[in-house]
Amino acid sequence: MDRIFAPWRIEWVERDDEEGVDGCPFCVLPERENDRENRVVARSEHSLVLLNNYPYNPGHAMVIPKRHATEYPDLTDDELLDHGRLKQRTLRALDEAMGPDGFNTGLNLGGAAAGGSVDHLHTHVVPRWTGDTSFMPVVGDTKVIVEELERTYSHLHDAFADLDGATVPEDEQAAVRFD
Ligand SMILES: [Zn+2]
């Protein structure tokens, strides 16, 4: 069976076991106290990296502008550079943490492409392994996904911490910083 691989069609979905998010999750979650609980793994001046809580593959991350931007052309030069740099670091950290064979990365822009998902701009970064297309059915269970996310978060946090320019806060629950 031929299938088109389009992980950006699988959007951020709030799980039942999570505290309700009032408003835009990509604005609300980074404001909360505990980065680890909220899956924020790295932060830079204008951007952050959030693990997708409904991953297509292990390590499925999103690079997100801190500002609630909905249109890519509206990002300022500073935001674009910062977004691009953090995407580079995300690719490096995922490479180091998980050793994938490749990546898919992409944006959903506009109602038709985004399918009614969160309109806060986000770039998906999805690690790929040869023959990995059956991952979703395997981890279709919420408990497995939560354990998987906790393990992935720790590995990825360590890998970000090893990159040039990283600052690791004393608080172990806090994201790695690139300021
Ligand atoms: Zn937002």
From TrEMBL:
Keywords: Nucleotide-binding. SUPFAM superfamilies: HIT-like. It comes from the Archaea. GO terms for molecular function: nucleotide binding. Residues 25-135 form the HIT domain. It holds the Pfam family HIT. A motif (Histidine triad motif) lies at residues 120-124. This is HIT family protein.
